[in-house]
Write a structure and sequence with these properties.
Layout (H helix, E strand, L loop, with lengths): L2 H8 L5 H31 L4 H17 L1 H8 L4 H24 L5 H29 L5 H30 L1 H20 L16 H13 L2 H30 L5 H29 L1 H12 L15 H29 L5 H13 L1 H16 L1 H12 L2 H6 L23
Length: about 425
Amino acid sequence: MTETAAGRKRGLFFHRDFRRLWIGDAISQVGTQVSMLALPLVAVKTLHASAFEVGVLTACETAAFLFVGLPAGAWCDRVRRRPVLIAGDIGRAIALGSVPLAAVLHHLTIGQMFAVALITGVLTVFFDVAYQSYLPELVSRDELVDGNGKLEATRATSQVVGPSLGGFLVQVFTAPYAVLADAISYVWSASWVTAIQAREPAPVPPPQRHLGKEIGEGLRFVLGNPILRKIAGCTGTANLFGAANTAVIVVFLVRTVHLSSGGIGVLFSIGAVGGLIGALTSGWFARRVGQARAIWLGALIFAPFDLLEPMTHHDWRLSLTAITLFFASVGAVLYNVAQVSFRQALCPRPLLGRMNATMRFLVWGTMPLGGLLGGWLATAFGLRNALWICAVGAQFAPLWVLFSPLRRMRDVPLPDDETAAPATV
């Protein structure tokens, strides 16, 4: 029995190549969480950016999913995914490393911050599409929920550790230099992905390649499946108002609540414990209630608590933001593990990149619009009122999956089931 086969028999913890992907992802996720706090703090505290400029920065971070998401999926289906992952990590390390370098030279500007956000966003599009399509090449279909659960546990743990670490680094070294931690983390990730020994087969090119036709196949697969359509609607709505909230919340905590960088980091970390709990229990939860129910129950958990966050003040009511983040993270992780595992199991492998890219386009493409919306709402109505509008809007997200075929199912039908939902390719 080979080492990889033995690892599969004993579980993914002993799966050599999955373990390398997992380790590389772990430190990279911590670095990403540091930057998620440090980048807006660079804008707010170092460059004294307005609320609208912070909204533009948030939009720049995700704009690539709207503009290059679909062709990225078609392109990733034409090549091996591992080199895409390595190039994405190295490119993001270079882009983020330019922030502390410019700060040392006293040439850091909001324009550079926008450019860094755009560049890292484009590289993240290709990385994420390739990443979600690469996991099924390393593990079997039966191991996908376990694999996604472990990766979500890593992401959730990073959300506990990263913001506190980020807040500490910002207070000690100032925000621009805290971004260096994320740049180093991407180099770490690239080294571990490079160490993966399994080699996926080269994709077989179709007789006649046509980018538009290949993109259309991915769109038809997603939009032709009633379950995928509802999942896309739910996630896209949640991301629209979540990105609007993201554009406002740090500015709100700094300028309205008057919280320190370290305090913001601790607050986010306390809330992120919920994501860790969600990740550690996602497999049990899906088995207990059924994968279909896990999708819509997770959505019902993450939305209602958003209504607490706008009531935050610099007293005991600080806990309202922590409670919001805690339960939103629990629900979001339970939802994401269930729906991502379903998508990966449902989709034929030659379409994985395009399916993932189409979903990213539909659900992440709303985020740059949300960032601009949040900046505009804060400018037009004030920071607290903007949070109220975002919270109310988020309540519409669960309705997509609650009023869908998922509501009548326990488990999601897969292609080999007689009850499988139709998917047009």
